[in-house]
Amino acid sequence: MKLEKFKQRDPKKIGITIFTVVCVLLVAGVFFYTSFTSFQTQQEFNIIHGTVGSNGDLYFAFYVDDVISKTMPQKGEGYVLDKEKTNCTKGASVEFNENDWSVKVLNMTETRTKCTLYFEKEPPKATDVILAKGETDELKFDGTADNNLRYIGADPNNYVSFNNELWRIIGVFNNIDDGTGKKETRLKIIRDEPIGTYSWDNKASGTGSSISEYGSNDWSDSALQIVLNNGAYWNRTSGECPSGQNGATTSCDFTNTGLTEEAKSMISNAKWNLGGLSDTSSDENYYQTAITSAWYTYERGTTVYSGRPTEWIGKIGLMYPSDYGYATAGGSTTNRQTCLNTELYSWDDYDDCFNNDWLYNSSYFQWTLTPYSSYSLYVFRVVSDGHVTVSFAYNTNDAVSPALYLNSNVKISGGDGSSSSPFILSL
Fold this sequence. Notes:
Strand content: 25-35%
Number of helices: 9
Oligomer: single chain
């Protein structure tokens, strides 16, 4: 056997080799650890296309209008992320920031995770959808200083799905103050069916603005207002609602009909006008001579019972007498313009006026928001025979149909406004 002379390796070379290998492993370890922990700490990525991580940790796929795309739309091109369709594999999820157009991947713990993002055209604002229709057989501008566009007729296509139930669009209203002085164009809607029949107010004498056991016509502290804006209806619970004189109540259950959190997110404050009508020295029942345009002016005036506010800032109110008047389309015997020029108090003599008004209902009396300002306890209502008159605020026979102004950024994402296909709202 041939023996070879043993040669000792150069210690210097061995040290350099070991050092190099350690450095490479260390750098690689730091890189992969940083990559892995960045996902765990929910790092934000501004993704246009491609993958994140040199080893294919994360892949993105984009669909634009349901067509696969190599890139996602740019900000300002009129697209929004469809959050319901967007998904990731392996338990990860996507958080999309529309302000800086960035994607945040959450809960990524495995490699080769794929996130699929779906983009669709942004739905138009609800107000723009209605305004784009212009004047039609069922839409008319009211000719007021605000020139609101209103739905008219016996049964126009103004149905909207809101609060998981049918509501109806009164119209597009301009110059709606949100209580801070900011004025916007907003959609005003009303529940298609009443939530019940309750007193407008029935506080005992000496409670709030009430000076008798019959209640007060000051909406700002009305017992009904509190139910709608802070009580059982607003909170979607059961409770007590005003019914009868001297603070009496009846049980009311809104666990299925009260406002959902989604519905409340579509409402913001509005400044509601509380002006009313009062007697004059020449006419004890001055309101009986008021035509629809006069009501609109009085509602926005300052005629209130002594010391009462002329405005209220809140979310849920009721329709005005002028809303009722402007909703008519008239008919063959009495046309719309004649109806508008006829006193609302006398409409019971004009079948064409109320029978062609979608806010009219022959089954019940309906509360309005407007006070009879000569007295502390009277409120106007729409009677089942079609005319507008007064009632004690404590009256329990009048139906309550909540009305509200939607946020100006609420959009219409579907539907045609018919009762079978109501407009679909989204934010």
